[in-house]
Amino acid sequence: MHSLLKDPVALQAHIQKITGECLLKEPVYPEHIDGIKNSSAVMFLLGLMPGDNGQAPEPCLILNKRSQEVTQPGDLCCPGGGISPGMDTFLAGTMTLPGLPMWRWPFWSAIRSQRYKEAKILRVLFFTSLREGFEEMRLNPFGVRFLGSLPIQRLVMFGRVIYPMVGWVSRQQHFRLNWEVEKIVSIPLRKFLDPGNYVRYQLEMKDPNADNGSRQVYDAPSYLHKNSLETEVLWGATCRITLNFLELMFGFEVPADESLPVLKGIMDETYMNPKAS
Asked: What are the phi and psi torsion angles at 272 (to 5°)?
């Protein structure tokens, strides 16, 4: 197990250093709010959560499992959603007030002085992820420490861009879910560093760009989460965000595709339209 996973304080400092240095190297975010109106901000939420079978709390990635009432039902995802340019822009300024998350982030002053317009957009994105986290799972916004951001992800199927923010929840271990979320799934970070937990997910789905009903196959490395209570597949954009995080922070890379066991699945019409069921 990576030594940083034994020291949560050192782990948070490491994440902040890597993400902050990446942001200072080159522009990442659009300078104007128009550049993010049709995008989403998500919270890559980390924290100490109880381990399997009553084990002591350890650093985990905290994910939502989408309910059957929304599109992409059953998927594991980061809390988050669409940006509300008016409200989010207006209220995002509170994030840099003394004592609040971005004010405590050690790279805020440097980002703001070197790329002021980008810094304001970053502030909006983080606020959006907090707001959505509160709506979906009653994530306490005052209990989240901002650790930086991760590379953006483009959703070809939905024509959207996802901006992942990294947050550390300090004390909250219990969440109250709204109708969009079936349950919380916490996965220890150490499990993501085990190559044996990955599969080559071959998911057959309808081609969104075709009108003739033809189908295509999603084929990519995915994480298979198993414990005594559940088995879940982490795939798609959320898996790519996670793999980016693991590579940046720990230098971890998934084994080559041809060496991974194959897991097959089928996506029906209810994936994009739950009312079709």
From this structure: -95, -15
| 143-183 pLDDT tens trace | 999 999 999 998 766 678 999 999 999 888 889 999 999 99
**Joined tokens for residue 230:** 């559940």
Distance (Å, whole) CA 47 – CA 8: 9
Residue 38 has pLDDT above 90, yes or no: no
Cα first-last separation, the chain: 43
Question: Which residues 6+ apart lie within 8 Å of 197 measured at CB?
Answer: 191, 223, 224, 225, 226
Q: Where are the alpha helices (DSSP H) in 41-170?
A: 85-91, 101-104, 108-114, 116-137
- Residue of 219, 220, 240 lying closest to 77 (CA atoms): 240
Query: Looking at residue 269, what DSSP letter applies?
Result: G
Residues 206-215: pLDDT tens digits?
765 666 666 7
Q: Would you kindly state where each structural domain of the chain is located, as residue ranges?
A: 3-276
Which fold, 3-276?
A: Nucleoside Triphosphate Pyrophosphohydrolase (3.90.79)
What does pTM read for this prediction?
Answer: 0.93
Residue-wise pLDDT tens digits, 215-239: 788 899 999 999 877 899 999 999 9
